[in-house]
Amino acid sequence: MEEVKLIATHQSFPCARVEWALRIKGVEYEYLKEDLANKSSLLLQSNPVHKKVPVLLHNNKPIAESLVILEYIDETWKKNPLLPLDPYERAQARFWARFIDEKCVLAVWGATVAQGEEKEKAVGAALESLALLEKEIQGKKYFGGEKIGYLDIAAGCMSLWFSVLEELGEMELLNAERFPSLHEWSQNFLQTSPVKDCIPSRESVVEYFSFGINYVRSLAASSKS
Ligand SMILES: N[C@@H](CCC(=O)N[C@@H](CS)C(=O)NCC(=O)O)C(=O)O
User: Which domain of life is it from (predicted)?
Assistant: First the structure.
């Protein structure tokens, strides 16, 4: 009898990625809620390198890093494939997923916390990253075609989470005029199962990010004074 456990927090999009993938595959799992302010010894032992959630425990073997976990899930449970079957398309999906984590997320976070004269430049950098993704989704319902797949799951942060960052950072990024295809994708994505059944409330994400934004801004202010 196999055992699947997920160490996670509800407001985190890397954790949501793993939950969506497990649900698409129909894998039952136990949710181990982590308190990031007081990390459990299970988390510290399971992810000693980064000490971050999510961590998937499959028969007590830990796997960390959400994109790595998605590939593990896809290779372990074959039903409802997440990555495309064609090797070139698989490589492309992995390329864009890394782009989202390494460029887009950082650029949007940078634009959110930026203040004063740095704001315009930071928002410009975020828009540049998003424009590249707009080209990728044009003409498609989902990045994965007719169904959500690996890249849609990776891009899930662009739905609720980026929208909250836009609100808190007092900026408009992903609106329908500027990025019609990405905007439509985001609306479709939020309506799709299992996303709609497994997503944190907007209020809880606002609270979660507000803490981090205030912290980063206060560090920036004290380094200037
Ligand atoms: N690249 C990692 C990022 C994971 C990550 O940043 N997790 C955050 C929650 S969203 C965390 O555990 N933060 C705790 C910390 O930094 O101490 C992934 O995709 O899994």
Answer: Eukaryota
In a domain, 220, yes or no: no
Q: Does residue 110 have a pLDDT over 80?
A: yes
- Residue 11 CA: nearest ligand 1 atom is 10
Q: Ligand 1 pocket by C-beta < 6 Å: which residues?
A: 12, 14, 36, 51-54, 65-67
* pLDDT reading at 66 higher than 80: yes
| Domain CATH code at residue 59 | 3.40.30.10
User: How much of the chain, in percent, has pLDDT values that exceed 70?
Assistant: 100
Q: Are residues 99 and 196 in the same domain?
A: yes
Burial letters 173-207, b for 16+ CB under 10 A, else e: bbeeeebebbbebbeebeebebbeeebbeeeebee
pLDDT over 80 (residue 121): yes
Mutation choice for ligand 1 from 53, 105, 208, 216, CB with most ligand atoms inside 8 A: 53
